[in-house]
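subagent[fold] <- orchestrator: predict structure for attached chain, return tokens only, no commentary.
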Amino acid sequence: MSRYAWAKINLYLEVTGRRADGYHELESLIVFAGLGDRLDFRPAETLEVGVTGPCAGGVPAGADNLVARAARALADHAGVAPEARIDLDKRIPVAAGVGGGSADAAAALEGLAALWGLSPAPGDLMRIAAELGADVPVCLFGRPALVRGFGEMVERAPPLPAGWLVLVNPGLPLATRRVFEARTGAFSPPRPWTTLANDVRELAERLAERSNDLEPAALRLAPGIGRVLERLGAAPGALLARMSGSGATCFALFATATEAHRAAAAIGREHPNWWRAAAPILHGKLAGHWRD
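subagent[fold] -> orchestrator:
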């Protein structure tokens, strides 16, 4: 049994306040790109997590591994032994603003529920997901979403047009906590997203009226992000260039697959050490998620 964990992209991310417990309040429009990690599940007598793939080097081991934490949390909730072998083919960069670990944890919750023959209520899985991390609930939701609070309030986004993304990471891991601590200035006013765009160009125009409020802080911590944004914005056909999440992965929005693949290839030739990929925006949770 296998499960895919798709890359999470914040098309915009606005920080609207800070709570008494220190968590920041956010508003974000999130989509998933058609590339990600793969998790394979099979029975075992203990809990085992193996990690391979081009981005395996940055995955925490032991108790800090989010997939293992998700497995133990689900087992505790269901009152079963956490017995499974999970093999993670890691292809999304770690600490990169695209929810790599969070998507893996969400995939582990659903994959292990199936492997162990569990039928938890959706609300129960969401509560477990929220305890694992701010991005895990939306990754469990797995479709275009509007996210508020610190990430625990997730609802379906208005319909979005088809579009393509080019993702680029310069190899600069950024800890989310550091970026939030470096954020300065006033908070953005709450502005719920209600836009219905006829095509991806109109979507880009509406997104340009929003921002990623963490981008200035990330640029101070990792100035190399600015080079990525400049290169993405200069690509032929790029409609919008922006950082995702807390960085350092940035994206550009394109209308066609041809434009996106050409841009990714050109950037790869110029900057072979940058991680890059072209992928479509996914519009449905069932699009390629399960492979049994």
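orchestrator: received. Logging for downstream: The longest strand covers residues 24-42. The chain has a mean pLDDT of 93.
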